[in-house]
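One-letter codes give the sequence; the fold follows as C-alpha cells. Both lines appear below.
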Amino acid sequence: MRFRVLLISLGALATGNAVSAERGVEALAWLAGCWQPEKGDAGSLEHWLPPAGGTMLGVSRTVKNGKTVEFEFMQLRTNTEGKVVFIALPSGQQETTFVAATVDHDSATFENPGHDFPQKVIYRLQPDGRLVARIEGTRDGKVRGVDFPMKRVSCDALSGVTALPASTADRGSRN
C-alpha cells in the first residue's frame, strides 16, 4: 500500500512539473510587476516584465545612501532542452544560468550545482502578496542562505516620472 501511495505521489509531482514545463515562462506570470525591498533605500527595486515571446525579462537595482551599489539583468526563458531557466547577469560578474527544479503557481526554484554561490535561486509568492526571493548555497564549506523580502508596488510610483499630458504627447508625434 505504501508503495502504491508513493507511486501516485510521484506521478502527481511529475504531472505538475510537466504542466509547468509545457507552459514555459507563462507559469511564472505571477512574478511580473515591480517589487520593492521591505528593507532598503528608496530606488531599490526588482522589476519583471510579463511573459511575451517566450521570455520574461527582469532588472534589479540596489541603492544605498543615494547611490546604486548593485544591479542585475535577468531572463526567464525555455532552453533548447525544453526546461525553464533563470539567467542572471549581476553587476561585475559573468552570466550564470540556473535550471528550474520546480515551478509552481506561487513558487519557483532554479539550480546550478556547479556555480560558486549561490547554487539555488528561489522565488516564493506569500499568501499576503509579498514576494521572498532567496539565494542558497555552499560558500567556504558552509551552507548559507539570504532572503530578500519584497512587496508589490506600482511601477509608475517607482519611476518618479509623471506621464506627459495627452496634448504634449500629440505634439511630439506630429513633428
Notes: DSSP finds three helices and ten strands in the chain. Residues 22 and 164 are 41 Å apart (CA to CA).
